[in-house]
Each structure stands twice: as C-alpha cells, then as structure tokens.
Amino acid sequence: MADLHFREEKVFKDPVHDYIYVKDPFVWSLINTRAFQRLRRIRQMGTSFLVFHGAEHSRFTHSLGTYEIMRQVLSHFSRNHNWPQDERMVRLALASALLHDIGHGPFSHAFEGVFKTHHETWTRRILMEDREIHGILSQIDTDFPSDLLSVISKGQKFPLLERLIASEMDVDRMDYLLRDALHTGVTYGRFELERLIRIMRPFGHDIVIKQSGMHTVEQYLLARYFMYTQVYLHSTTIGSDVLLGKILSRARDLFQEGQLKYCPKELVPFFEKPESEITVEEFLQLDDTVMHYAFSCWREEEDLSLRDLAARFRDRRLLSSVACRHPLDVDTLLEIQHAFDDAGIPSDSYLSYKAISTGGYLYKQGIKYVGDDGRLRDVCEASKLIHSLVPEVYHRFYYPKDLVEANHDRHTLVELLHKLQR
Asked: Where is the HD/PDEase domain (predicted)?
C-alpha cells in the first residue's frame, strides 16, 4: 500500500451520483475482494422487487454509493473545516462506508428472523476472519481492522466517523433513500444531497448543520418519512416477507425431521447449526441465487404446504391482507387459526398478524444546529414540520385469499375476516 493514489482515478458510472470516484488502491483492493463482489448478488431491498418492479438494485451498488457520499463529505470537510488531517482517518472513513453492509445475507431481515442471524455479527466476523479482507486492512497497520470494526459497531473510539456512518443523518441513509426512490420510481424520496452535504460541519465530537440549512434537513426527513410509510412498510412488501419467512420456517422444520427431499448445500449449515458455529466461508456461499434455486426445487417437494408456498413466491401469488380496525387479542387470533385449521388450511403455514409501526422510523432527536447564541440545539426545537410527523400503528392480517375462496367453508372464513375490519 505504498502508493496512496492512482495516477488516473478509477470510476463507476452510477445512476444516483453520476460517477463514483476511486483514487486509492486500498479502496480498489477492497472492492475487488470476493466478499464485497458477493454483494452484487444480494438485492438491496429484499422482497420489494415483487411490489416495485424496478427495485432490482444490489447491496453492491448501495455500498459504492455510500462510499461516494462519504468521499464527498470528507472532501467538503477538508476544504472548509480542516478535517480530517491524516490519510489513515480518511481511509478509515472510506472503508467503513464501503464495508458497512458486508455482513448482509439474502433477503436480510426475513432470513435473520427465521435463522436468528444478525448482519452486524457477520460484518464483524468477515472483517476479522476473512483472510482476503483482513489481509488488505492489515496492510495499513495491525490496528486498522479493529479500528474499522469500532467505527462500524459504534465503539465510541471515533465519534465523528461513527456519526457519519450511523446516525439520524448518515451517509448510509442518504444513499439508500435516493437510490431506493430512484429504482422504485417514487419522487417523494428525493432531497438535495449536495446542499445537505454543504450545510454539514464537524463540531467537537459531533456533526452539526448550519441553521440556515434547516429547510434542507426538513426535506431530507420528509423523504425518509415517506419512503418508510409508502415503500419500506408497504403492506404487500410486508406480506412478501411473511411469505418468505413461512417458506424458510417450513423448509427448516422438514429438514430437521428428515423430510426435506432437496436442500442446496449452501443452506445446510443454517438448517443444522446455530449462528456461532457457522463459518465465514459457509456464510459467504449464500446469496439470492441460492435462495431462488431452492424455491424452484421446493416446488417439487412432497410436502404440500412447502410446495405451495414456494410456488407462490416464485410466481408472485402473494398472501392477501385485511386492515384490522383494532389490535387483535389472543382469543380472536386463536378463533381464526382454529377455523382455518378445521377448513384444511394450515394456520402455521399461511396466517400471520402484523402490527406495523412507523414510530421507529420517525425522527426523534440527534440532528443539531448551532444557534445564534453559539449553543447546540436540536432541529426539532426549530421545526414545526418535524413535530407534525407523528407515529402510527397499522394492524394487518395476512391470509391466502385464493385458498379461502376455493374452500368448502369459505363463508365462515370470509365472515371471520370481515369481523376484523369492523
């Protein structure tokens, strides 16, 4: 790593940032590792492609985009605020942006829910145990891998970098909001990235904004609000995740009972072992292509539930849902489950009740500005618009509409579903 910069920078043409610039051979080496290239084969938005047909972009493109925004922020800080002052800190920032999602698996959140895995754990293990990536990081110095892990895991050693990579207004979120809005075709996820970067500045151990940039922050927070309420928490996307979880749960149960006829070898460790016993090499074998191949094979399984569930996902025959007027109590849920079981529709394979809250995705506090008196204040103190965004909870019940309509006891089942809406 003697050469700090290429003579001629490398570029990626990008639909969000136009060009992504790589000047450092160190960054280029990380991009070309097997673990990072694997992210090309993992969709950024999980099952959202079944709802928004353009959402086919990968975690690879998002990771590059996050790196590019970090590069732009550092350039702005260096020109205008004399930070960072050393090349090691720059590399730490760029590597954290580039590798922040390295531990994600296919259909990340639904997969993690079934197999009790955690992408944060796998990010840590890949950085420290993958020979290729750890070797490149260690060429900077022996402490670099652990320092990088400290930034990504918010270990408080590098507070400014941690704020840039994971906070209420971080480079990760900036890229995925813009990128996901572009690929889903929605306009309300857009905001002025260049202006947002220009109003940011380092302040002690924190990142603050200029008071005059308040409206730009409001635009960013509104974009985030609409992307979560209208895209990420779309009822059909939630239903797709439910279906995926049902498939994986049923396949795992059949495997453990010795009843699963086919299982890709890449999935076997996740069916057999707890997360702590799965190796990094085994984890890196898993991507979206493995999952889709498994779904195709499971359409031929002897188990009728798994056959149907896998076919539904492959052919986009998703679960339907009804909006519940009130939260469902245990007795109501049991009544519905028993009715479906009695009608020959296994409740554990097809039914799911979800309380979907926007509360965890609304801005609460953390973005600060310097007031006229020189004191730090939170933007929520100065913005009525931010205060107007209030959390909501939606209750939905998912079920297989086609099986209900074809069932001999459909009138009983339909009446139960109608009761949920009253």
From this structure: 55-186
- Spacing of C-alpha 37 from chain mean position: 18
The residue out of 289, 317, 345 marking a domain boundary is 317
Contacts of 390 (CB under 8 A, 6+ apart): 362
CA–CA gap between residue 93 and residue 84 (Å, rounded): 10
Q: Which of 233, 260, 276 is the last residue of a domain?
A: 233
Retrieve residue 307's tokens. 């056959």
Q: How many domains does the chain have?
A: 3
The gap from C-alpha 268 to its chain's centroid, in whole angstroms, comes to: 24
User: What is the phi/psi pair of residue 262, to 5°?
Assistant: -135, 135
**Predicted pLDDT of residue 364:** 85
- Secondary structure (DSSP) of 257-271: TT--S---TTTHHHH
Residues 296, 330 within the same domain: no
Name residues of the chain where pLDDT drops below 50: 1-2
Same domain, 131 and 56: yes
Domain interval for residue 30: 10-233
* pLDDT at residue number 297: 97
What CA–CA distances, in Å, run from 83 to 3, 21, 179? Answer: 22, 20, 28
CB 320 within 8 A of CB 403: no
pLDDT at position 2 is 47
